[in-house]
Design goal:
globular, 39% helix, Aldehyde Dehydrogenase, Chain A, domain 1, alpha/beta, 474 residues
């Protein structure tokens, strides 16, 4: 049975044991694979105090911060075997998903290193104002202090990188609370940062669940909260954060639209990948595929064959494409949603019985808005096909949900593409790509109940810093 090292706490530059322990499971075998150390309330207080002290003592220049992040990226690459194995065991990623996660995290670190070196303000032309002759004006960008990063299980390396690396690039100290389902990638990242020369205390790792997050919210020295997770939990964090700044990447029901002029040979493989990679556990995984009626039958039949052919099972098997979801409890929930939809009139074109935490890739039709699979975020390997007639109808369907993270649109009609880009109430519109298309340099975030603020290193360093106006009269 695969096992991983203990996930200890990192406080003040020291790895230490927690006040209590919890087991994390191998997501396919459903057996313990590592021990997680959980902090006491006093250890959380100590950790935030140490992070705040390290931030105040730090004299790293922007170029020094960039060099540390570049070295950490190289060290992450050198730990590829360890990291991919941990992602297979702890998260249930097949090897391809794990390798992709690592590659993107390395790129996120390198992009953040560039942002660190370019971290600066701008000139403000105040001399032209009345009675301001001889006066100069410029801004500085300055860090906020202690940033708390609360991260999810479904991208336990790259989502962590998107919060940790820009925060450090901007000159902050980071207190990271990774998902208790998937602690190991965060521990390895912290080890790489320390080995790269990051001063002790600027990087803290505290494991745990809601209790640890609540303890961080109770610490006034935490100046910024970066959170990825459910809309319900995000709303709770926002209320508790008060006037402190936050960045929220929250839930979604992701749509992709296929017009009747789309290049299906190009679109369908991308759609299958976007719906079922990481077992559909991505906020932008295609949950609802809107297909224009003229090509609906063709798309339905071709997708059904493609989805039935996806190998599902053990992520350590090189052939596996769809591994387990994060827990057997979540697998049972997803299975129940599918079964209820079928009992209410939906048709299952692909899929089958759950085995442990593995839900086979599922394709549904005849889904209506009253079914859970049609109106709530599934967060599993389930995609539903819905026909539409006009672009207005498709746009209205997307905009009718309370969420707005991203939408894909396959079409070769430039007017329709631009109309969709202007009218879809989402954070990202991807033409001839899927809702799940993301390049790490992009600004990434949602609208409506999908959150606010933007990830992507160039944008995140600005979220995690503030502008200070300086004037000088000679």
């Amino acid at each position: 049975m695969p096992s991983l090292p203990d996930a200890r706490l990192l406080i003040g530059g020291r790895w230490c044991e927690g006040a209590s322990h919890r087991q994390a499971l191998d997501k396919f075998r459903l057996e313990p694979c590592t021990t997680i150390h959980l902090p006491s309330r006093e250890q959380v207080r100590e950790a935030v105090a140490a992070a705040d002290a390290a931030y105040r003592a730090s004299r790293l220049t922007p170029h020094e911060r960039g060099a540390i992040l570049d070295r950490a990226a190289t060290l992450l690459e050198s730990r590829a075997d360890d990291l991919v194995r941990a992602l297979q065991v702890e998260v249930g990623f097949p090897a391809g998903d794990g390798a992709g996660e690592l590659k993107r995290a390395v790129q996120t670190f390198r992009l953040s290193a560039e942002e660190a070196r370019n971290f600066c303000g701008e000139m403000v032309p105040i001399e032209g104002a009345p009675n301001q002759s001889g006066r100069l004006g410029f801004t500085l960008r300055v860090p906020l202090g202690v940033v708390a990063a609360i991260t999810p299980f479904n991208a336990p390396l790259n989502t962590v990188a998107h919060k940790v690396a820009p925060a450090l690039a901007a000159g902050n100290a980071v207190v990271l609370k990774p998902s208790s389902y998937t602690p190991t990638a965060a521990v390895v990242m912290a080890e790489c940062l320390l080995a790269a020369g990051l001063p002790a205390g600027l990087m803290t790792v505290l494991h745990g669940g809601a209790d640890t997050a609540q303890a961080l919210l109770d610490e006034p020295r935490v100046r910024f909260f970066a959170f990825t997770g459910s809309t319900e939990v995000g709303a709770q964090i926002q209320r508790k954060a008060g006037l402190r700044r936050t960045q929220m990447e929250l839930g979604s029901i992701a749509y992709t639209i296929v017009a009747d002029d789309a290049d299906l040979d190009r679109a369908l493989p991308r759609i299958v990948n976007a719906a079922y990679r990481k077992a559909g556990q991505v906020c932008t995984s295609i949950q609802m595929l809107l297909v224009q009626r003229g090509v609906y039958d063709t798309v339905r039949d071709r997708l059904a064959a493609m989805v039935r052919a996806l190998p599902c099972g053990d992520p350590l098997d090189a052939a596996t494409v769809v591994g387990p979801v994060i827990s057997e409890g979540e697998a049972r929930r997803i299975e129940a949603w599918i079964d209820r939809a079928v009992a209410a009139g939906a048709t299952r074109l692909a899929g089958g019985p759950r085995v442990g935490a593995v839900v086979p890739a599922t394709l549904l039709t005849d889904v209506d808005g009253g079914m859970a699979v049609g109106c709530q975020e599934v967060f599993g390997p389930v995609m539903s096909l819905v026909p539409y007639d006009t672009l207005d109808e498709a746009i209205d369907r997307v905009n009718a949900t309370p969420f707005g993270l991203a939408t894909g649109f396959f079409t070769n009609r430039i007017g329709d593409a631009l109309a969709a880009a202007r009218r879809l109430q989402v954070g990202g519109v991807h033409i001839n790509e899927t809702s799940s298309s993301r390049v790490d340099v992009m600004p990434y975030g949602g609208s409506k109940d999908s959150g606010f603020g933007r990830e992507g290193p160039h944008h995140a360093v600005r979220e995690m810093s503030e502008e200070r106006m300086v004037t000088l009269l000679a």
